[in-house]
Design brief:
Length: 239
């Protein structure tokens, strides 16, 4: 029975490893998705700022075209002043020139404000782009680390499963069925250690005589409280 219990104990440890790997397997895709979302947000923030700068540049170019058009309008009006024949026409041209100059002043002020805003945005954008590059590199490194863990876990999973299959073939079929049933009913744990007269599965005390017998690993002994199989990790030596 000692050998059977030792094999079963190893199977239990393998099963716990497999459970941990399975949990990681389900977590890694979520973590990578979270990092993908962070990456997307970082890129979108930069893109929105770039679009804002582009929109202001477009507005500036439009105002500069309007300014040029008004300046041409003034030149044409000033050229006509030598052609007018009446005072009324002369005053009308003066009014037109004054209105165009007033419009130009407003456009020039607006263009200067736009240039200041664009300059400020570009300076801020340059810094944020550098910060974003560092952030994106960090995110990519984290994603790479998760992918490497996934690869290692896949390799470990296969090795553990292969070892489990070998062990399962060496364990008495009735004992293995009992273990499988207990494992299913007891949160994945069918065999537990016993120390200081305490079951390490439910942490309830076991009777002194049962504890003595359990330390020998010569018989199938189950916890009177949780019903799990008890195993003593002490090479049969009592303590």
């Amino acid at each position: 029975m000692r050998e059977q219990l030792e094999l079963l104990w190893e199977v239990q440890k393998i099963d716990l490893d497999l459970e941990a790997i399975e949990e990681s397997r389900s977590r890694y895709p979520r973590e990578i998705k979270r990092l993908d979302e962070r990456e997307k947000i970082e890129k979108e923030k930069i893109q929105k700022e770039k679009e804002r700068v582009e929109a202001l540049e477009k507005e500036r170019r439009q105002k500069e075209r309007q300014l040029n058009a008004e300046q041409e309008k003034i030149k044409r009006a000033e050229g006509k002043m030598f052609e007018v024949k009446t005072n009324k026409e002369y005053q009308a041209l003066l009014s037109e020139i004054d209105a165009s100059k007033e419009t130009n002043n407003r456009e020039e002020e607006a263009i200067l404000k736009l240039l200041d805003e664009i300059d400020g945005l570009k300076k801020g954008l340059s810094k944020r782009e550098k910060d974003a590059v560092a952030t994106l590199e960090k995110i990519e490194a984290e994603k790479k680390a998760f992918r490497e863990k996934m690869t290692r876990d896949d390799s470990t999973w296969k090795a553990r499963m292969d070892r489990r299959e070998i062990l399962a073939g060496q364990i008495d079929s009735e004992l293995f069925r009992l273990y499988s049933t207990l494992k299913e009913k007891r949160q994945g744990v069918g065999v537990v250690g016993v120390r200081q007269e305490t079951c390490q599965g439910c942490f309830m005390n076991v009777p002194p005589q049962m504890f003595i017998e359990a330390q020998k690993n010569n018989a199938l002994i189950r916890c009177p409280n949780c019903n799990r199989i008890l195993y003593w990790e002490g090479n049969g030596k009592t303590k």
